[in-house]
Design a protein that fits this description.
The complex is a heterodimer. Chain A is mostly helical. Helix content of chain A is 53%, strand content 7%. Chain A contains 4 helices and 3 strands. Chain A has helices spanning 13-19, 24-32, 51-66, 70-92, and strands at residues 11-12, 39-40, 46-48. Chain A has a 3-stranded antiparallel beta sheet. The longest helix of chain A is centred in the last third of the chain and has 23 residues, at 70-92. By secondary structure, chain B is α+β, with helices and mostly antiparallel strands. Helices cover 33% and strands 23% of the residues of chain B. The radius of gyration of chain B is 33 Å and the shape is elongated. The chains are: A mainly alpha, B alpha+beta. At the A-B interface, helix 3 and helix 4 of A face helix 2 of B.
Chain lengths: 103, 311
């Protein structure tokens, strides 16, 4: 077995909570509310991605500024992500050719 | 640093605004400029300003002090009569600045707490509940000409941040495409409580070009040819963003035909280059010489070609 040697593919709950400066219970709460979606290994342990740190920072900023409750926070980040995706689509859509015909 | 704006002005309010007005103005502006809602770097500074104004004006006590003492209210100790204060400032020896200085020394630095200002960015009310928070990611558009996108380019970008404007040198690699995001790590919004800054993303916007139309990595351009070149075939010189190319126009080419120059589109650092499509457009002289007219008339009499039938 080589798993023991391979680098962990993320952060466990304790390291993640420490890096995010949050109490592990609050991190668990974020997971229960679907605000964070860590990967689970065979034993059920949670593994967080480094990108989740960015997600948590955003949750904190939004909650501070708008006194949102956690359920509303989920809706807000979902909507912000959808808008970002739509804006990216819009940017990547080929613009219609302007001016005279090509022929 | 630019002089601080009046807090009422920041929130777009008159000085007799009610507590409700203040709340409403702040909520509206916060929704517009919150760094997670508005990705432009200017929004961060604006949001900070709005939050600070709200912090001061939403608390009846600090608001009263702000109204009485103006922007220096943080330097004024409790229990000072506004009129005495105004007189003391007016009567201070030398220009107003010196007076300022004296007061600051007298009452220490108690008023200004840099951390306070910093924290006020995200509303002081929630302070203590959270530790350090990484800054938000930001986005700016980066308009590039087709030529610059093709060759890659060196740019100095001026980005406004909370400590004023700063310049960032960026190297755009050859072959970026419209809508592509270039990440500048740690150049985004400021973090709080000692946490790192977010990232700044440059979103490439390929400017429209009089000759080239870019779709993904493929480039389309018109290739004007003379009727005889199109009929007999020719090898013609053709400008591309990567320099002049020779295009072989096969005999019997009509307008609209696309000739592909493989790999002459946008370079692709991680794969196959785009292609360049030359779209044939047959041009005729707007004025014929005597000889040209004679030859065309001869052709017209001889030829049985009918483009409206053959199509």
């Amino acid at each position: 077995m080589s798993t023991a040697l391979s680098r962990p593919a993320g952060l466990d709950l304790q390291s993640f909570a420490r890096l995010a400066s949050l109490h592990p219970d609050l991190v668990r709460r974020f997971v229960a509310l679907g605000l964070l979606e860590p990967r689970r290994d065979a034993s059920g342990r949670m593994w967080f991605a480094y990108g989740d740190l960015v997600a948590v920072a955003r949750l904190q900023r939004l909650r501070r500024a708008f006194s949102l409750n956690y359920a509303a926070l989920g809706l807000v980040v979902d909507l912000l992500d959808r808008i970002a995706a739509l804006e990216a689509d819009l940017r990547n859509r080929p613009r219609p050719a302007r001016g005279r015909s090509w022929i | 640093m630019a002089p601080r704006r009046d807090f009422y002005e920041v929130l777009g309010l008159r000085r007799d605004a009610s507590a409700e007005d203040i709340q409403r103005a702040y909520r509206k502006l916060a929704r517009t400029y919150h760094p997670d809602v508005n990705k432009s770097p200017e929004a961060e500074e604006k949001f900070k300003e709005v939050s600070e104004a709200y912090d001061v004006l939403s608390d009846p006590d600090t608001r009263k002090r702000y109204d009485a003492f103006g922007p220096d209210f943080r330097h004024v100790p409790d229990g000072v009569d506004p009129q005495t204060w105004a007189r003391a400032r007016a009567g201070a020896p030398g220009p107003g600045r010196a007076g300022d200085e004296r007061v600051r020394v007298d009452f220490g630095e108690a008023g200004i707490d840099i951390d306070d200002l910093f924290e006020s960015m995200f509303g002081a009310r929630g302070r203590g509940r959270w530790g350090p928070i990484t800054g938000a990611d930001q986005e700016v558009e980066l308009p590039l000409t087709v030529e610059d996108a093709y060759t890659g380019v060196h740019r100095w970008l001026t980005v406004s941040g909370t400590e004023g404007n700063r310049s960032i040198e960026v190297t755009i690699p050859p072959g970026v495409t419209d809508g592509q995001r270039i990440r500048l790590a740690g150049q985004g919004g400021q973090g709080t409580g000692g946490a790192g800054a977010g990232d700044l993303y440059l979103v490439v916007q390929i400017l429209s070009h009089p000759r080239y139309r870019v779709e993904g990595r493929d480039i389309y351009a018109e290739l004007p040819v003379a009727p005889w070149e199109a009929a007999l075939g020719a090898s013609v010189a053709f400008d591309t963003p990567g320099g002049e190319a020779k295009v072989r126009v096969p005999a019997g080419t009509s307008s609209g035909r696309r000739l592909r120059l493989r790999g002459r589109g946008m370079p692709n650092p991680s794969g196959r280059n785009g292609d360049l499509y030359a779209e044939v457009r047959i041009m005729v002289p707007s004025k014929l010489t005597k000889d040209e007219r004679r030859l065309f008339e001869e052709l017209s009499a001889t030829s049985t070609f009918d483009p409206r039938r053959q199509r």
